[in-house]
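F.,

This is the one I mentioned.
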């Protein structure tokens, strides 16, 4: 089995300055500073197969961006080994960068004051892409991302959504086999997000492009990735299928009832007390939401009891959202 990314016992530590308190402490700091070692990434190991789309998730400060920077050769690891596309990212830098594409949601690789197409031409020269390869590949990218009308505009005149689509196009000029995306949809509206997601699916299917995605928008993960790697305080706490995570932690379901008649909340609560249901009630809208264990028998029993006593306008059954699951894991600890 061939891997695009192989990480073994990876560590990254930073030296942080710690100041002493008071005037006396300030004078001492002038002569002898205190430092402490802060581990940003703490002995992690994982691998990503070629053609796989993996979500790399965690809270702020968990070590996601630090990992990406080591995988792309920007930072040198304190310890451990990294192999990406069969190379050491920080030792074979020039050869390595031709095999990856990187999009940082809060940084730009496009030149601010020149037209987008001029940035594309410069990057084409940097990556030594032939005219034939550029025309064949980039026309598809430009059409799919719908950035044709933006090519003659300076980057500074683009909206955030327009710029991010152009950033993605710039990362793919040399059609890399591996794409790193760090918060690529941050601040974007729903339509732009949908376009970017659809495009990523297409390049994954057409070119077998490997994608490592870090994001706080878990809907991106749900739409694109079957597998997630979850980080907490620099350590991996989960590496596996998103579906398994949902099965293990999505232990509740919400059943929303809308009634055609006025319903007495106390009567409804008493009626379902043996089913271990928690009710959230909006009397004005006559909307009642029951939270119950994700057990088919209990859900069926609840619906049967309610339907047999009241006239129903609508029923909706919703699983626990991925966002809620992740929040519960960080609050309660992974078990």
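My design for it:
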């Amino acid at each position: 089995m061939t891997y695009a990314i192989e990480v073994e016992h990876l560590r990254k530590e930073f030296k942080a300055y710690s100041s002493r308190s008071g005037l006396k402490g300030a004078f001492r700091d002038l002569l002898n500073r205190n430092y402490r070692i802060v581990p940003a990434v703490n002995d992690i190991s994982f691998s990503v197969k070629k053609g796989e789309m993996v979500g790399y998730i965690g809270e702020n400060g968990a070590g996601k961006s630090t990992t990406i920077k080591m995988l792309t050769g920007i930072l040198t690891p304190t310890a451990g080994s990294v192999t990406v596309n069969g190379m050491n990212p920080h030792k074979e830098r020039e050869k390595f960068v031709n095999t990856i594409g990187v999009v940082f949601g809060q940084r730009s690789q496009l030149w601010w004051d020149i037209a987008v197409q001029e940035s594309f031409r410069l990057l084409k020269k940097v990556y030594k892409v032939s005219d034939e390869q550029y025309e064949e590949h980039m026309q598809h990218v430009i059409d799919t991302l719908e950035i044709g009308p933006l090519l003659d505009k300076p980057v500074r005149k683009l909206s955030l959504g327009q710029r991010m689509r152009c950033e993605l196009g710039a990362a793919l000029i040399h059609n890399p086999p591996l794409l790193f995306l760090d918060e690529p949809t941050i601040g974007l509206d729903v339509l732009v997000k949908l376009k970017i997601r659809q495009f990523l699916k297409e390049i994954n299917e057409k070119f077998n492009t490997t994608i490592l995605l870090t994001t706080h928008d878990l809907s991106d993960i749900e739409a694109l990735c079957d597998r997630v790697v979850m980080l907490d305080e620099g350590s991996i706490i989960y590496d596996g299928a998103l579906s398994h995570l949902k099965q293990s932690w999505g232990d509740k379901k919400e059943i929303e009832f809308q009634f055609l008649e006025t319903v007495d909340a106390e009567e409804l609560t008493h009626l379902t007390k043996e089913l271990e249901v928690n009710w959230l009630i909006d009397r004005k809208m006559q909307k009642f939401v029951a939270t119950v264990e994700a057990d088919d028998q209990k859900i069926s029993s609840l619906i049967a009891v309610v339907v047999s006593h009241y006239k129903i306008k609508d029923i909706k059954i919703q699983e626990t959202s991925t966002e809620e699951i992740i929040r519960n894991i960080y609050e309660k600890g992974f078990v």
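DSSP finds twelve helices and 13 strands in the chain.

Talk soon.
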